[in-house]
């Protein structure tokens, strides 16, 4: 039986779920299909996690597979690496992205390097889950966008879902991956909307970007929660007759650059949108590749709409920090001025 993370009751196949419910179902399905999958984290058992993603799984699978850990992120990460090396598939929940800095030691120095260090004799099949981003009026240490920290590390795969269905399929794929995956869950999307999710156990492909909306005049590239405003911006542009193609990167590392570059070569214009601060953000990586491979096709300079180079402000100013529909539309219109 699969439990609904919001009601605690059984769910039917194809029920419309929030992202929380879809993640819960993916974890349950993975644990049903593979008894080596083990969950670790603070308050994930009895309390079902701070956002209730693991609600009901302790009763379903027991405390040997859903493990409430001490409040010690570095210990959790170290234990997860050791378990993965010895044949388990450890899925770790970090309560908030601001708590992940002590985890980096084990993830970067050990999990990401294990395949190379052992010349392929061992792998580290673990998933590091954590909520990211602002928009829920949380304190500053709960609102970071940390994708670039991990994407810079060879050996780590970085995945960010943008909808319940993608959360279900991509989490299954991450758990099945023989190498470590950092799975970043946009906090703002946890309960923002619902989507029909088939609990069929079918994983979505990693390292694939998804074209959410086809267009011919400009390419808008984004991931995670920022796709909400990006899609709304595409709708606004359509009112003026502008055809915007919207791409969900989904897997930042290793990125599907082919889909992005083909779109830019078609439209000649690109705006990248992300919530992380502007300097050093992953948008710069995309623009670097666009500049290298699409220079002769570009009709306008590539642009990036991002968070500001400051700490995420507290709740009254969150909306001013997060890239808005108005900022995205303005950047797109600037690009469209070039002919």
Automatic annotation (TrEMBL):
Query: What GO molecular-function term can you cite, just one?
Result: oxidoreductase activity
Give residue ranges for domain Transketolase-like pyrimidine-binding: 17-192
Q: Does the keyword Oxidoreductase apply?
A: yes
Q: Any keyword Oxidoreductase? A: yes
UniProt keywords, alphabetically? Oxidoreductase, Thiamine pyrophosphate
Give one Pfam family: Transket_pyr
Q: What's the cofactor?
A: thiamine diphosphate
Spell out the PANTHER family in the cross-references.
PYRUVATE DEHYDROGENASE E1 COMPONENT BETA SUBUNIT (PTHR43257), PYRUVATE DEHYDROGENASE E1 COMPONENT SUBUNIT BETA (PTHR43257:SF2)
The name under which this protein is listed is 2-oxoisovalerate dehydrogenase
Q: Which organism is it from?
A: Candidatus Kaiserbacteria bacterium RIFCSPLOWO2_01_FULL_50_24
- What is the phylogenetic placement of the source species in the record? Bacteria, Candidatus Kaiseribacteriota
